[in-house]
Amino acid sequence: MRTLDLSPLYRATVGFDRIADMMDRVLASDVSQPTYPPYNIEKTAENAYRISLAVAGFTDEDLSVEVRENALIVSARKADDESPRTFLHRGIATRAFERRFHLADHVRVTGATHENGMLHIDLQREIPEALKPRRIAISNGDTVASTVVETAEA
């Protein structure tokens, strides 16, 4: 596979660091993406999302959810089991993991719930007032007025 070097773009652009970082991540030669634990991402409303991870075998104390620099980091570490058990078949993986999700601007985590072996993380996109679309009223040529008419959310 051929790799692209985007470093010349860094010299000619200002303020596009996040886009360049995203391109670096996408074009990285690291083909082996982690597949454990399996997860779903769903859109629950116009500006609401939910990430659901299958975390069977973990308790609330084993799981950690944190947001750092526009990244949602979900990790788990199972405490060592002291009881002597002999498994004939061990199909439920309880190995430690760390899963990262990169969040877009203005997306915040509103909560997390753990039930029936599933960890649900709710996200909400909150667009600041300054970035919401505005409708500018057009006046006739007789008067000069700076009237702004607010519109419903786009």
CATH topology of the largest domain: Immunoglobulin-like
- Computed CA radius of gyration, to the nearest angstrom: 23 Å
**Individual helix count:** 2
* Lateral strand order in the biggest sheet: 1-2-7-6
Please mark out the parts with pLDDT under 50 across 5 or more consecutive residues, or reply none.
none
Task: Sum up the structure in keywords.
154 residues; mainly beta; 4-stranded antiparallel sheet; 36% strand; 3-stranded antiparallel sheet; 2 domains; Immunoglobulin-like
Account of the protein in words:
It is a single chain. The protein has 154 residues and is mostly beta strands. The protein has 2 domains: 33 residues, no CATH class; 84 residues, Immunoglobulin-like (Sandwich). Helices cover 10% and strands 36% of the residues. The chain contains 2 helices and 9 strands, in the order H-H-E-E-E-E-E-E-E-E-E. The strands form 3 sheets. Strands 1-2-7-6 form a 4-stranded antiparallel beta sheet, with no helix packed on it. The longest helix has 10 residues. The protein is elongated, with a radius of gyration of 23 Å. The model has no long low-confidence stretch (mean pLDDT 79).
